[in-house]
Design a protein that fits this description.
Number of strands: 8
CATH architecture: 3-Layer(aba) Sandwich
Strand order of the largest sheet: 1-2-4-3-5-6-7-8
Radius of gyration: 18 Å
Structural class: alpha/beta
CATH class: Alpha Beta
Largest sheet: 8 strands, mixed
Number of domains: 1
Distance between the termini: 39 Å
Strand content: 15-25%
Number of helices: 8
Oligomer: single chain
């Protein structure tokens, strides 16, 4: 049976970042979309960022702005159609590690129960049979935008798996993505989600991710290692857990990892 690590409550840890997103909001392929464009307006290199917390999360919009500064057209589609996980969960359900260490057993148990009650129904509603066609359709709609050349997908946690699925490629010419980047993906099936990968794939994984541990990382490395003709990379970040904000340098390095990957494969 394939191994399928779950979606950790620490996917919900962290805080809303400060800063004012600079992009615009439009509709693409029937979905509300945040758009950040480079100064020259080029769409030759395009990235799409599906996220469990949705198209309005400041953190994701600021990331899109960073990609725009690096020369990419960046899109965040509302693939949950106004039903993304609420932003409040970033802080209320599972606090960052330095806060969690001060919590008692009862507090942690209550947080875990609340996480399960929230995530379970949401994950069922936005299961693969629902979400993947929306993401694939959005990718193909973006490809029709004049000036668009190569397209990549970036995904975190829930979105990380969909970045991997996007890297399976498309059997139809002119559709699908050219490369993908997944950060601490959750809910992945090993080897089932990795065997069909045909597009360049970069992975950023945490050394201490309890839901994608050393065993699972080794299994992924083994599967991807057999793809000798496919360019891929797996970077394991030392002392990093799933989706944690402990180390700003690791976060910055992971962002740079994606920019370098897409500069190489979308140029």
């Amino acid at each position: 049976m394939p191994k399928s690590p779950g979606m950790s409550s620490c996917c919900l840890s962290g805080r809303v970042q400060e800063g004012r997103p600079q992009g615009t909001e439009i509709e693409i392929g029937g979905l509300n979309t945040y758009v950040a464009e480079p100064q020259d307006g080029s769409k030759a290199k395009t990235v799409i960022i599906p996220d469990a917390f949705g198209w309005e999360l400041p953190n994701t919009r600021l990331l899109a702005d960073e990609y725009a500064k690096a020369g990419f057209a960046a899109y965040i589609p509302d693939v949950h159609q106004n039903d993304s996980l609420p932003i409040e969960l970033l802080q209320s359900i599972e606090p960052p590690r330095h806060v969690a260490r001060s919590m008692g057993v009862a507090e942690k148990a209550a947080a875990t129960a609340k996480t399960g009650a929230t995530l379970g129904p949401w994950l069922l509603k936005h299961r693969e049979a629902v979400s993947k066609p929306l993401i694939d359709g959005f990718v193909n709609a973006v490809r029709l935008i004049p000036g668009t050349n190569k397209v990549g997908v970036i995904g975190f946690c829930w979105g990380g798996r969909y970045a991997i699925l996007a890297a399976h490629g498309s059997s139809e010419p002119g559709k699908g993505v050219d490369a993908a980047y997944a950060l601490h993906p959750s809910l992945v099936a090993i080897p089932a989600d990795f065997d069909p990968v045909t597009k360049p794939l970069s992975l950023a994984l945490g050394e201490k991710d309890s839901y994608l541990g050393q065993k699972e990382i080794g299994q992924i490395q083994e599967v991807m290692g057999k793809k000798r003709d496919l360019e891929h990379e797996i970077r394991v970040y030392e002392d990093q857990v799933h989706g944690d904000e402990k180390d700003k340098k690791a976060m910055d390095d992971a962002a740079q990892q994606g920019i370098e990957w897409f500069n190489k494969h979308l140029s």
